[in-house]
Design goal:
98 residues, mainly beta, 9 strands, 55% strand, globular
Amino acid sequence: MAIKKQYLKSKPICKVTFALPAEDAKKVSVVGSFNEWNEKKAVLKKLKNGTFKGTVDLETGSSYEFKYIVDGVYVNDDAADAYAWNDYAGAENSVINL
């Protein structure tokens, strides 16, 4: 799993690229506080090497909770900046700090 952050000099935006190796998966999305946890808003594209990848523009100066949905199963990112307990889900969420 990997997270790449590319900060823009012209705007308070960071292009965050999420990458998740999942060769056997059919569908992977990244959901979080930045897209109302809606899996249709950030579907990742499967590359030839089996990694799912996608980029989301996020405002800097904030922290965002997120998870991957791999064929309907929620998965945390081991490359996250931190983890936060979520009472609603009864589990930890990955956190990215920008």
